[in-house]
Structures are given as C-alpha cells and as structure tokens.
Amino acid sequence: MTTSDRAAETSETAELGRVETPAWARRFAQRVTHIQEAIPDIEMEAEARVDGAISLLWSLLDTAVAQANAALADAGLDERIALHRGEDEYRLQGVGWAGELRSIAVLMSVRIVGGHASGGARITTSGTRARIDLIPHTEGAGPHWLIPQTAHELTAHVVDDLLLSVFGDDPGATGRLYPLYSTDQDQ
C-alpha cells in the first residue's frame, strides 16, 4: 500500500466519522455489542457442559476398571488392568487369556464452536481396526455420549462389555459391541 493509498483510506475513514448515524445503524451496533457481551457467558456455559460430558465418560471407564480389578483381586489373580489418563486420552492395558498384551484407547477431541460442542471421542482396541465413535450430547437433561453408528447412548453396560470383550474374550460381549463399531468404509 502506497502513502497516497493510506492517505486516501484515512480520508475516507475520517469522512465516515462525520456521517450522521441513522437509527438502523445504532440498532446494529447495539445488537453487536449485546452479542459480544453474551459470547463469554455462552462459551463458559458450553465449556462447563462439555467438561461434564468428559467427566462422565472418564467416570464410566474408571468405575468399570475399578470393578474389574476388584474382581481379579477377589479371584486371587495378580493381573490388573492398568490405566493411564491424560487430558485428552484414556488408555487401558491388560493381559489377554494367552498372556498377550491387550489395550483400549479413548481419544478425545471436543471443542466449543458457537456455544456448542463440536467433535467427539473415539474408542479403539488392540483386537480390531474398527472403532466406536462417540459424540457428546450436552443439551437437555444432562450430559451423555451417543454412538452415532446406532444412535444408542454409551452406558456403563457398554463399557463393561468393552472390558469383557477385550480383556476377557467374552463372545457375548463381543457380539453386543459389534453393531456399535465403525470402520473407515462406513464414512
């Protein structure tokens, strides 16, 4: 941009400053101001709802792991399901019936866009290339996670089946999970 272009732009801006502001333009400025003032509240509320959904997912996993490990201890077994939880990930590792290492990973990618949750979570296992996709539902009665493949809610029973299938080779649990899995071919 040349000096004369800047001078012309400054002159146009100065001329606009002297224009009488009509009523519609004042209403426009009021609405924009109101929207900008409301955005932090909307974003904070949405973030709190998303945090609640993430806490719910981690809690479902924590509970299932605690119950599984308690059952292993009660049975006198030394094996335990180990867990690692980061801000955006949850990993479980345990030993399968033949002594091989097995794992479940939950990767979270949720952010707030326009006051609503965007993204979701993905569950993968060491036993299959398929995955269970999850989307948070944060409106209404309380946070919960939906499985878009079937429109079912992720419940404690689904998480229990996940641990039974991956670490316990339970064919019934594997069969119940099968409809919930997605592959890249599904998209």
Report on the architecture of this protein.
The protein has 187 residues and is of the alpha+beta class. It contains four helices and seven strands, in the order H-H-E-E-E-E-E-E-E-H-H. The chain has two domains: 3-40, no CATH class; 45-186. It has helices spanning 3-17, 23-74, 156-168, 171-177; strands spanning 82-85, 89-95, 101-113, 116-125, 128-137, 144-147, 152-153. The protein has a seven-stranded antiparallel beta sheet with strand order 1-2-3-4-5-6-7, covered by helices on one side. Helix 2 (23-74) packs across helix 3 (156-168) and helix 3 packs across helix 4. The chain is elongated, with a radius of gyration of 26 Å. The model is unreliable at 3-14 (pLDDT under 50).
